[in-house]
Write a structure and sequence with these properties.
It comes from Caulobacter vibrioides. Keywords: Cell projection, Cilium, Flagellum. This is Flagellar basal body protein. By secondary structure, the protein is mainly alpha-helical. The chain has a domain at 8-102. Helices cover 69% and strands 3% of the residues. The chain has 5 helices and 2 strands. The protein has helices spanning 8-34, 38-41, 45-64, 67-70, 74-121, and strands at residues 126-127, 133-134. A two-stranded antiparallel ribbon has the order 1-2. α1 packs antiparallel against α3 and α1 (8-34) runs parallel beside α5. The chain is rod-shaped, with a radius of gyration of 27 Å. 14% of the residues are buried. The mean pLDDT is 85.
């Protein structure tokens, strides 16, 4: 998928619309993470992914051939620069929100794993043959943590 523009003004206008829509979607995802509702961010993933791919493709195209946009009206180019600055700011915001959610989630997983491990390490008192108390620890299932998650 690529932008089909009739001239530089049209291309810049379409890039502005693309950038603004992508910025809006990513801002909504950031809000979902900031308000501890990451499941709400999922509704934007498909469209964000498609638009991000288009944005990446078009950005590379323009970088490789600046003449695609350099003859556009100055006001449109300036509007595109402002839209891009806004996009960069929202990306930074989303990055911070996702990182914070990741840290909280990892902390919860480690706390749960630690609690499970401590409960499993406690010796279980059972009765063995002849009614004798058996204080040997019972071996349960293993727990696995992926530190790269």
């Amino acid at each position: 998928m690529a932008i089909a523009a009739v001239d530089a003004d049209d291309r810049v206008h379409q890039l502005i619309l693309l950038t603004e829509r992508l910025t809006d979607l990513i801002a909504k995802q950031a809000v979902a993470f900031e308000t501890h509702r990451p499941h709400e961010a999922a509704r934007y993933v498909e469209e964000t992914s498609k638009l991000a791919n288009l944005y990446r493709h078009e950005s590379m195209r323009v970088r490789a051939n600046v003449s695609l946009v350099e003859s556009a009206r100055l006001e449109l180019r300036q509007r595109l620069m402002r839209a891009t600055e806004g996009f960069d700011a929202v990306l930074a915001r989303q990055s911070r929100a996702v990182e914070a959610a990741k840290i909280v989630t990892e902390g919860l997983v480690h706390a749960i794993a630690k609690e499970v491990a401590s409960q499993r390490a406690a010796p279980a008192t059972t009765y063995g043959a002849g009614g004798m108390v058996n204080d040997r620890p019972q071996h349960g299932a293993a727990i696995t943590l992926n530190r790269k998650a």
